[in-house]
Amino acid sequence: MANKIQSAFLIAGVICLVSLLSFADADDVPHFKVVGTVYCDTCRAKFVTRVSERMSGAKVRLECYNVTGGKLTYTADGETDSNGVYNIDAVGEHEEEFCGVKPIKSSKEDCTEIIQDGWAKEFTRVTLTTKNGIADKTRNVNPILYLKDKPLPVCPEVFKELHYIPGETQHP
């Protein structure tokens, strides 16, 4: 009987010790994965179309700024893979900051103009906090677009398919 009690205490002690060790190793600093795409807007439409091209080798930067003072508090750089997708690892809680990804360098010489008007802003916002109800640590952001120097010849056909007339502010 005494051996059974001693064995039970030993097992309970080992379980407690293992639990404490895993608790001591717990990392309280949140880590996020920021994922997005970079496109060459081959029709200069300022949105992604079927003929937009994903850009491999484009450089982007994640930046966070203090909400009250606007001071830069965090940066991390990324580069797109062969599919035009970037993955940036972001560390830390940024609840009191606004963060976003911006283009740094295009990988195509004929597609370098950065959009700075309309809905496609230069700075694509992303939330990097665990205190907003989002459980997933992966944050997907809107695409970053560079404008091609000259639109492709197929662009009028693409616009017709979309019932889009460039320059109009309202569409059917």
Task: Offer a few descriptive terms.
alpha+beta; Immunoglobulin-like; six-stranded mixed β-sheet; four-stranded antiparallel β-sheet; 18% helix; 33% strand; Pollen_Ole_e1_allergen; signal; disulfide bond
Structure description:
With 172 residues, the chain is of the alpha+beta class. The protein has a single domain, classed as Immunoglobulin-like, CATH 2.60.40.10. Helices cover 18% and strands 33% of the residues. It contains two helices and ten strands, in the order H-E-E-E-E-E-E-E-E-E-E-H. The strands form two sheets. Strands 1, 2, 5, 7, 9 and 10 form a six-stranded mixed β-sheet that branches. The protein has a four-stranded antiparallel β-sheet with strand order 4-3-6-8, with no helix packed on it. A hairpin with a 5-residue loop joins strand 3 and strand 4. It is elongated and about 85 Å long. InterPro entries: Pollen_Ole_e1_allergen. Pfam families: Pollen_Ole_e_1 (PF01190). Residues 1-26 form the signal peptide.
